[in-house]
Amino acid sequence: MTDIPQDHPRYESLLAREKVAAGVKMGITSIQGLIAQGRGESFDYLIGERSTESALYSERAAVAALLLAKNPVISVNGNVAALAPEKVVSLADITGAKIEVNLFHRTETRVHLIIEHLKANGASEVLGKNPDATLELSHDRRLVESRGIYSADVVLVPLEDGDRCEKLVEMGKTVITIDLNPLSRTSRTATISIVDNLTRALENMTELALEMKKERKEELVKLIITYENKKALSEAISEIQEHLKTLSAEIEY
């Protein structure tokens, strides 16, 4: 990886690019993942590269759902494995969630490499190598494990494909997504949509999980019942608009 000075104004963004590029070289990230990373980065500019109020609102609801779940699962693709493997493992440990590798551009080699990468970052068990169930999809994201995604009641699917998100919701699952684009089909289809950068979202959720584990079950249930996903998405769009207005005012002449 390129040595990026920490005082560089684009340090976090450049570091994320390096991680995805390194993931491609390692064989855990598909070449298409580079395009996805760039698209997400453009939306991060629009929200001001920060966790907004709407994001934190969704993150609290997401943590409540994971803590209340009987069989929570975190789905991991190549970009997630490259960008934040240790953060996935930390959140899974705190919430009791399983981790399952699920890929659009699937090869057995990539699955194996991602599993080993997650284990190297602290995971004790990672599902996905032996799919024994299928979702009603026409691509390889349909391949899942029966004790993982297929039977999960709550699934966290960061950096998700819209059609799988839609199918999981149709199956009656609570689907949590992390997607910087509030207009995407994924964001509009999910049960809880987090419009935030992957790394920031996972860090926030881990901190929240440590706090919220101490709360009474009734309080967690209340968070879920009162959560409104359309409200979160609407506010995310408003936050983008306000940020752009601020930037516009700064460069007026």
Describe this structure in words.
By secondary structure, the chain is an alpha/beta fold. It has one domain (53-240): Phosphopantoate/pantothenate synthetase (Rossmann fold, 3-Layer(aba) Sandwich). It has eleven helices and seven strands. The chain has a five-stranded parallel sheet with strand order 2-1-5-6-7, sandwiched between helices. A two-stranded antiparallel sheet has the order 3-4. Helix 1 (11-26) runs antiparallel to helix 2, helix 3 (53-68) crosses helix 9 and helix 3 packs across helix 10. The mean pLDDT is 90. Belongs to the archaeal phosphopantothenate synthetase family. Catalyzes the condensation of (R)-4-phosphopantoate and beta-alanine to 4'-phosphopantothenate in the CoA biosynthesis pathway. Residues 195-250 form a coiled coil.
Give a short summary of the structure:
The protein has 253 residues and is α/β, with parallel strands linked by helices. The chain is 55% helix and 10% strand.
Which strand order does the major sheet show? Answer: 2-1-5-6-7
Question: Runs with pLDDT <50, length 5+?
Answer: none
Q: What is the level-2 CATH architecture name?
A: 3-Layer(aba) Sandwich
Distance between the amino and carboxyl termini: 41 Å
Strand content: 5-15%
CATH class: Alpha Beta
Q: Please tell me the overall pLDDT.
A: 90
Number of helices: 11
Under CATH, the topology can be stated as Rossmann fold
Got a strand count? 7
What class, by secondary structure content?
alpha/beta
Helical residue percent? 55-70%
> Which term fits the overall shape?
globular
